[in-house]
Amino acid sequence: MNAPLSLTGQAVAPGIGLGPAFLLTRERRPVERVEIGGDQVDREHARLAEAIALARADLERQRDRASRRLGEMVARIFETHLMFLDDEPAFDKVRELVRDQLVDVRFALYTVLEEYAGRFEQQEDSYFQERAQDVRDVCRRLLAQLDGERDTVLAGVPDSPCVLLASELTPSDILHLPQEKIIAVAADTGGATSHTAILTRILGVPSVVGLRRVTSAAKPGEIVVVNGNSGKVVLRPDEHELATYRSKQTEYLEFVESLKDIRDVPAETLDGRRIRLHGNIEMPGEARTLLANGGDGVGLFRTEYLVLTHSRLPNEEEQYRTYREVVEALAGLPATIRTFDLGGDKAFPGAGIPPEDNPFMGWRAIRVALDRPQMIMPQLRAILRAGAHGPVQVMFPMISDLGEWRAAKQMIARAAEELEREGVPHEADIPAGMMVEVPSAALLADRFAIEVDFFSIGTNDLVQFTLAVDRANEQVAELHQPFHPAVLRLIRMTAEAGATHGVPVSICGEIAGQPLATLLLIGLGLGELSTSPSLVPELKKLVLSSSFTEAAELAGEALAMETAGEVREFVSDAMKQRFSNLPIWFGERGETGT
């Protein structure tokens, strides 16, 4: 028997699963260049049209099945793929390639869509990078139609429970999985915002992605442990490890069951400090997941998803329907909608946004919006219209200057005036706030606080700009430290400015979802944490089990430290000691650990 092997990826669906491995593999027919004669161009164009029609019919069936089995949120993923099939510019390029280079449609289709996927992969933002998988899924589906093949890869799933190991998982794969047979999922590829992650969370299956080589290192039938809390996967565990993980699994399941009892309990510290736990969402269906987990509202709706699913800027009516769906799903709880954070690292085909040498500090977010009001005005009108159906807040990204803020406010006023003049129902007086993502915003927080209705601290960018670290650059990624004392001071400065002027301050970066940081953030003065809807119950348990006094003491000691390493070690030791009775992972999600 081979020795045990531990791999570390990104934990995307909580829980611990262990059992025999089933490897999902695909034999892919190679895509080779095949030359055709000029008299065959029309035939190849007709083959493409037929493949698109067949793929659309198949996707519509799967969408309807997903809606019945898993709900509208999952069905929307198939809607995304259907929208890709409606991307005429992409398929026009396929037809042009067939006509101009006299190649068969199979090669032309693969060439164009692979280039399309590559553009997404080149984006710095992980969410956009992961959309490349969607494009390839559509491409694979179309190639199968051209080849007259059906994907029967899941036919070999064993009758007994198993751990599914895959190089990649498509939404179609997950839809057809026999849920009762799958104990856990581990994949070589994928990230936190991939459809694999979203779907496995809905299925309630412990999952880890981004493992790189789990399928090459594992053998069918071998025992595998998947820790969806820490991101650790163990192949061929020994008896001691198996016993340890079985104990952890039992303990965790009991803990999860206990969290149901606090779903409707307000998140309030032992000494009476109310902490609001909001959700970061990308799709409307996640609002219902947030409610089911006892969240207090949506703290960040990332609207860039709408651009991706349309492969263009969606019009006002399309946005209005989406925002209204979120607002109505929340049933009276607030929804904070962030305007498009596009440009720079989030450019998309057809946007007309030029490439830049330093996109993170380039023409992006509010800068694009102010330069191109035609991009932002339909969105602001749609948000104001959605406000007629429930509490809505609008939030602008990457504000660095009071002039930018005032110009953004003027656009809201202009949108409200237009709607009023046209007699369109809307809510003109909605709260307007800003992301605190650059040091200048934090340093001027006391000035901004006089004019804004709320702050939301985006630590991912704040850390990057404060420490001059490109978090997407593997050579310096380890320097991207949210526990750095300089970052903590900027967070504290913003929280104090908000408290002085009665302005709510939330935090919506990745650190908000780390149990390790919960008490530290509360102690720094933050009254709202916004994170993945699935993490809300866990964070609520920590809040209910703590006092603001001890959180403030923890933060005070951390602020006196000199390095990020000292802060992390101190906070980690304190949290592990304070909550030794709770099976909560006090590491960063995806970091090596048990």
Descriptive account of the structure:
By secondary structure, this protein is α/β, with parallel strands linked by helices. It is built from 23 helices and 16 strands. Strands 1-8-7-3-4-5-6-2 form an 8-stranded mixed sheet. It has an 8-stranded parallel β-barrel with strand order 9-10-11-12-13-14-15-16, surrounded by 6 helices. α1 crosses α5 (126-147), α4 (105-121) runs antiparallel to α5 (126-147) and α14 (373-386) crosses α15. It is globular, with a radius of gyration of 25 Å. The two termini are 23 Å apart. Mean pLDDT is 88; it is low at 590-594.
Summarize the structure.
The chain has helices at 41-70, 72-85, 88-101, 105-121, 126-147, 171-176, 195-203, 214-217, 239-259, 286-292, 304-310, 316-330, 366-371, 373-386, 402-422, 439-443, 445-448, 459-467, 485-501, 518-523, 536-544, 548-559, 564-578, and strands at residues 5-8, 10-13, 16-24, 162-166, 182-187, 207-209, 223-227, 232-235, 276-281, 298-302, 335-338, 392-396, 432-436, 454-457, 505-507, 528-531. It is an alpha/beta fold. The protein starts with a strand and ends in a 16-residue tail after the last helix.
